[in-house]
C-alpha cells in the first residue's frame, strides 16, 4: 500500500546528497536529475525539494498549485537545456495502476527518441 504522507523516500536522500545523483538542474524549490533506469536516451526526474505531503498527484491540494506549475515549467526549461527540440514527453505516474514506485511526487521528462502513443 502507498506509504503515509510524511514517509521518507529515496528522493529525500538525493535531495540531502546522502546518495549521489546526476543533477541536471537545481534551484531553491526544484531538483532535476537523471533517472537511474532510463527509459529513453534522455530520462530526467523533476521533484519538489519540499514534499509537503505531496506523495503523488492524487494527493494534491490547492496549496500545491504553485509547485506543480513550477515542476512543469522547469520540465520545459530542462528539455531545452537537454536539446530536445524535436519534442519530448512528460509523465506523472500515480498509484498502483499508474506504476508509481516512489511516493514523492515527480515528473518524468523523456526524450531523445520517438515516443509512442498509446503508451500501454
Ligand atoms: P515512478 O515509477 O514512481 O513513476 O518513478 C520512479 C523513478 O525513480 C523510476 O523511473 C526509477 O528508475 C527512479 N529511481 C528509483 N530510485 C532511484 C535512485 O536512487 N536514483 C535515481 N536517479 N532514480 C531512481
From TrEMBL:
Catalytic residues, per the record, are 106 (tele-amp-histidine intermediate)
Name by which UniProt lists this protein: 14 kDa zinc-binding protein-like
- GO molecular function annotation: adenylylsulfatase activity
Recorded superkingdom: Eukaryota
Per the annotation, the residue ranges of the short sequence motif Histidine triad motif are 104-108
Instruction: Outline the extent of the HIT domain.
Output: 10-120
Amino acid at each position: 500500500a502507498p506509504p503515509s504522507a510524511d514517509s521518507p523516500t529515496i528522493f529525500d536522500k538525493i535531495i540531502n546528497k546522502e546518495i549521489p545523483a546526476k543533477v541536471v538542474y537545481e534551484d531553491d524549490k526544484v531538483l532535476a536529475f537523471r533517472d537511474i533506469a532510463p527509459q529513453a536516451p534522455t530520462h530526467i526526474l523533476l521533484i519538489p525539494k519540499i514534499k509537503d505531503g505531496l506523495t503523488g498527484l492524487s494527493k494534491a491540494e490547492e496549496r500545491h498549485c504553485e509547485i506543480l506549475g513550477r515542476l512543469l515549467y522547469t520540465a520545459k526549461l530542462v528539455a531545452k537545456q537537454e536539446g530536445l527540440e524535436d519534442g519530448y514527453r512528460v509523465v506523472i505516474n500515480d498509484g498502483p495502476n499508474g506504476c508509481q514506485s516512489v511516493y514523492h511526487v515527480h515528473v518524468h521528462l523523456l526524450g531523445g527518441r520517438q515516443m509512442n502513443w498509446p503508451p500501454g
